[in-house]
Amino acid sequence: MKLHPTLENPLPPGAECLELVTADKVRLRAMRAVPEDARGTIILLGGRGDFLERYFETSRDILRRGFAIAGVDMRGQGGSQRHGPDVYRDATTSFTHFEEDLRTLMDGLVIPTCPPPYYALGHSTGAHILLRVLPDSDWFSKAVLVSPLVEIVYGPWPKPVAALLVNGMTLAGFGSRFLPGVRKKPMGRDDFPGNPLTSDRRRWNRDSSTLEAAPQLGLGGPTFSWLHAARRSLKEIRTMERPRAPVLIVAAGADRVVGNEGIRQLARSVPGIALTFIPGSCHEILSERDEIRQQFLAAFDSFITTANSSVS
Predict the structure, then answer these.
(1) Which CATH superfamily is domain 16-305 in?
(2) pTM score, whole prediction
(3) Mean pLDDT over residues 121-138, rounded?
């Protein structure tokens, strides 16, 4: 396992690639960078279909702030072990497996080798996994969740129809099939117009260059089994208890991937969660235009570095 820097996307200073193995024998690709006299460690979890290289820029931002960084590709994506021979097919059947991936990162890499305190930074599905563990885990002092997967946007599908189709296809043994209309391979440079993820073409091309150099890192669109697992996990999130660490959600005002109303409802109903929006941002705030990323970094700095920044 290795990292894949490019001229457009250089390796963060001091970054090293490591292999971790979960309790159920899945090989994970992890990254760590620890500067001298680090003031703590940021644990980074990307979204569905992400890979560590997409967060090199954010990792450099974190390192400049004096923090160490540690991240992992969740099973089935990036440089970690895939579910089957079709590397672009997402065969996820349960989100509980991702909790094991996070536990492996913390117990196998972060706690033994990275300086505390530990702060979590999760995007989309990665943020969702953090929501699953925060009520019971004492790993983190604070957590920042970016565009978290709290509500699915079904597009033209009415929710009852989507539920019937997803449940039926999964029970019938067709869970590994791609959802209707989704791509079976990762998006590339030519797919920028109209994409729902970012309005920044330069960063879009940067990530595309990584996939051109290392196409095995990419993933196709969601499958029925992924959506079935996500729907089950979302039911659990809606009844979550207060997290053990203060949480800041930074949501994208123009998100077309996750539902912002669900995020609002979560922040209203669960104590310990604060919420702010960045107007005009698409789903992937960390890959957005400079002015949007600067707003995120200002919120991150204020929340992480302010003492006793608890929320009621």
Answers:
(1) Alpha/Beta hydrolase fold, catalytic domain (3.40.50.1820)
(2) 0.94
(3) 97
